[in-house]
Amino acid sequence: MLHLRMIIPPDRTTSAVELIESTVGATHLVVLPGAARDPVGDLVTCDAARESADELLHRLREMKIDQDGSIAVENIDLSMSTRADAAEEEAPGEGADAVIWEQLAESSHEESTLSFTYFSFMLLATMIAACGVVLDNAILIVGAMAVGPEFGPLAGVCTAIVQRAPRLAARSLTALLIGFASAILVTTVFSLLMTWMGLFSRDMLDGARPQTSFIWQPDPFSFVVALLAGAAGTLSLTSSKSGALVGVAISVTTVPAAANAAVALSYGEFAQMGGSIGQLLLNLLGIMLAGTATLYLQKKLWHSHRGRLKRRLRRG
After folding, report:
1. CATH code at 44?
2. Could you tell me if 10 and 41 are in contact, meaning their C-beta atoms sit under 8 angstroms apart?
């Protein structure tokens, strides 16, 4: 279930309330006339099943409530209500399959913003991965994959393509480009520092690395795994099953490939650097292709579902 809190201009409250009352899967409607002060309006709250929330939000935005008032949406972790249970059963489809496109767009926008936190995670993940590739330590590679924040901008690109949002696409691609370029540059300096301290060496990079040599040797399986990870990551994002993102994070080798490229660059090993960059680009391309295709499929399926839902908007 989702909880909606709205500030509605008084002249549109009646229409909005009628819409909510007629929406299959909406319940717990509360109206507080004149309660809002900034902006001035009526405070209206309700709960809605995920299956019907997207259509309800779409209709509310058509009334321009988001422009002249406000619409806030929150996930309900626990709802002990017989009426809520009945509302979820009334709504067609399964909540896990429902896509809240407005929520997805907002999440993609936030995750694809160049922020201090984004840069910090990117740099730290790449330096951890650098230690992993030099030491041939798979545990450090897995840790770096989990820390890396690059899936946010990748999801932003996929969402922007499907929703035809050029600004989001530009922002996401900028975050990817600047993020990885900065990470490689900083990690190259980090590698030189570790070499000066005697902790890294060219022999360690050139030696046998059975656990991590795949990072700079892309093959067809690299692209296949990237496609699978892109689809899984997109599904986990749209269904709010964020726990699956950890599994996705350790399925691809974007950050480790950038780290290996940086360490190879610090020693002038341009062959390894080229292979690492190839692995990085292959994974990024595979994730974006699969993510975009997954979103297109979900949009088509949900468009069909929305048509059925519109026919059931009037109870009884």
Report:
1. 3.30.70
2. yes
Phi/psi at 37 (5° precision): -115, -30
Residues 6+ apart with CB under 8 A from 191: 130, 134, 200, 262, 263, 265, 266, 267
When divided into structural domains, the chain yields a total of: 2
Query: 145-202: per-residue pLDDT in tens?
Result: 888 888 889 988 998 999 888 998 999 999 999 999 999 999 999 999 999 999 999 9
Residues 6+ apart with CB under 8 A from 136: 207, 208, 209, 210, 211, 212
- 87 with 164, same domain: the answer is no
What is residue 213's DSSP assignment?
A: G
Which domain-ending residue is among 65, 81, 98?
98
pLDDT confidence of residue 316: 44
In angstroms, the CA 237 to CA 233 distance is 6
- Cis ω before 166 (30° cut-off from 0): no
Query: What beta strand segments (E) does the chain contain?
Result: 2-8, 26-37, 40-48, 70-75
Specify the amino acid at residue 85. D
pTM (two decimals): 0.81
Contacts of 86 (CB under 8 A, 6+ apart): 27
In a domain, 144, yes or no: yes
Residue 310 domain-assigned?
Answer: no
Can you give the residue range of the structural domain that contains 21? Answer: 2-98
Containing 150, the helix (H) or strand (E) segment is none
Same domain? 114 vs 231? yes
118 and 204 in a common domain: yes
